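Q: What structure does this chain adopt?
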Amino acid sequence: MAGSPASGFERAVPLWRKAAYGAGSMGDSVYFYAWDLFVLFYYTQVLGLSGSLTGLAILVSLVIDAVSDPYVGFLSDRLRGLRWGRRNTLLIAAAVPLALTFALLFMPPSGLGQWALFSWLLVFGVASRIALTFFVIPYKAIGAELSRSPLERPRIVAAAAIGNTVARIALPLATFGLFFAESERYERGQLDPANYAPFAITAAVTMVACIALVVAGTLRPLREDERAEVPQPAGSMSPAAALREVVKAVTVTANIRRMFVLAIFVFVCLVSITVLKIHVLTYVWQVPKDLAKWVMSAQGFGGAFGALLLPLVGREFDRRRAIMFGIVGFTMLNALAVMLPVLGIGPGAGTRELAWVVISMMFAGGVFLGFYLVAVGALSSDIADEHEVATGDRQQALVAGFLTLAIKTAGGVMSLVTGVYLDLIRFPKGVPVSEISSGAITELAAFVAVFCVVGAAGVASVIRRLDVSLAKQQGINRELASRLAPR
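A:
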């Protein structure tokens, strides 16, 4: 079967190519890190925009972005005859627009009123999220297409998970060590509006560099696979045609429906942690300034360790069990860490002892998150293969786009709920930590902890219903290989 389209099914992917693919995850993690951690904090606490308006702008941005995801996946699946291939062409086209719109998101003109500031966030939030979609959706499909080997695929996903965690290690160290330095006017650098433009420009350049590495590392094998495919007409590329394919996917393949619901519950708990993490760092834990970067990066160190560990200790690990174990462990450790000072357990807020306890818990939570990232990435690709067997159509990007629709919709709703909640409890803006009441801090911490528990319970209820196994995936690969083998 050498030289046939089936030859790419279980091919070994060299380490350097895995690393190049993993660089793409560093790029999207830069964006998600800034979006999840800083957009809500920057616009509410630094610029003074209403929490409800900030949450609404984030929700609208994410809903528009989410709706575009399945269409971009559908488009990428159907592109034909492009010099750089159907995946990498979109990555190349997205790079510069993504960098520009992201940088401008953190560079609004001074003196804007509430509605003008809301409009700036909305316009550049939508624009940057759509540009990101044209990168992330084809990128996820690249990971599924580099190899379909049940053993090799988790290693490819692990490379992406390691890229993700490397970014989440480096970014806190850079943001709190370089960009968010204290000044005479601002005791905590994250409250200084002048610090955000240099941070955003540096992050934008980094994203472009990461996209370039992905293209350089994956272009050749994917282009060879496309050239070996039997020529087929592209068919209609209209939004209506894309909608029909999405409906078919959720109707024909039950596991796609289940993964959609699973993604919603996962991101209920993840977003409740990430969008308020700077609030928690600043007001709940009151972490000493020199330890803030280590609190924020500890999860990344743990995530890298977990992503490396899972494929090593379990070459044929149970995807469902790893997802369940990973997300529940991650969320419970984060909920407990947030509640420690509120419940009076252990060292008090503002102490170095509490900071080191939190760092330890964030590292342990990161290990669990690494398990989850590797398992869910491999499982998503396996389910896209299952759908291909059921329909006869290669639609890795469409399936990835549909699943990210769930992720972004849940993230948008949670961002709106969070913004409204901050307004309801009248959480103070732009004031020193010493002026925040203990009651407001307790209400902030309780919000995070409750949604962690709710999300974890939802994951536990859905994960048991997934019909997946290693033996099933091996059968799917044999069926796909037999269909494409020369006759």
